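Protocol step 4 of 5: obtain the predicted structure for the target chain.
Materials: sequence only (see below). No template structures provided, no constraints applied. The aim of this step is simply to have a reference model before the mutagenesis design in step 5. Sequence pasted as it appears in the construct record:
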Amino acid sequence: MPLQQRTWRVYCLRLSHMRYKRKRDKCFWTMARSYLHDYMPAIRNLSGKTIETYKQSLKTYLRFLKEKKNIEDELVSFEAFTRDYVKEFIIWLKGQGASTRTINLRITSIRSFLKYCGQEDFELRGIYESVCQIQKLKEEKHPILYLQPEATAVILSAYDMNTQKHRRNRMILILLYDTGARVQELADLDIESLHLDVPNPYISIIGKGRKRRNVPIMRKTVAHLNSYLKEFHPSEQSAPLFYSMRDGKPHRLSTDSISLVVGTAAKMARETCNAVPENVHCHLFRKTKAMDLYKNGIPLPFIMQLLGHESMSTTSGFYAFATLEMMSDAINKSVPIIGGTEKLWKNKNAKQALYTLD
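Step 4 output (structure tokens):
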């Protein structure tokens, strides 16, 4: 190839690289905003809290770039999302005292963002695949905490029936346990969410990603709900199920208010029952319901559907293991009685039963 032609080709390649680099430099912020403000809420239909978690992960990575790599915000491009940089980011997070779970969440968020970028611009696919080669940190699995039956019973009956507010609070606790709902899901319930006059009563719950699921409820819960509706919603057909009165008007209870109801009930129950743990929160009711179902032999797919998990791995990761109590019962049932009995194969009647056609 003549020198002049080779020089021209090198020049074109460099120009193409410079244009591509400027394109990536420019489009990082555009893609990041599109990912957080368009793709995640509109296409993925994720909740505001979930989107905020992903946003915080990206902000943390940008802080790492600024503090450790001296890359200011206006200079950030996809060149800063290399495999080596992400590995250094993990080490930096450890130095910041981040837990294993938090680090894995940050990695997942970055992967998700780069996957979106690779789908929007095929030239960025290589960056995503390179970062995917980084393994998440191994998390030590701990048995999940849940309430023992005696503790559950005491907490559910902590509020007496003497005042209207207490009757409302008891209904909140009963429904929180029986449905296994998240606190936000419970706060979002309306009267229309209840389906009580059907052969198999259920409640329609709007979960993460605005996905609807139907959760069956016990007959006792139906009776409690009918009494609650007569008192709190005597004529209304459309209203928040749980509310408080302010300025003479009903206002939907917030998640903080429901958490306060749970915390107060636990504090009262702890005075009479030592089995009630110190830190009782709304999500503990969800775990307790799931473990109660699991210990009673309910298949994991049913528990997955009740909890609103998107994948079986999420359900099995939390609940698909034998608790100490379950293992102890299984071991005791499997051990033969020791001493005081004749060997079965030496028993005359047993031998006769084996060798007969009757």
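Step 4 remarks: Confidence is low (pLDDT under 50) at residues 15-25. The longest strand covers residues 202-206.
Proceed to step 5.
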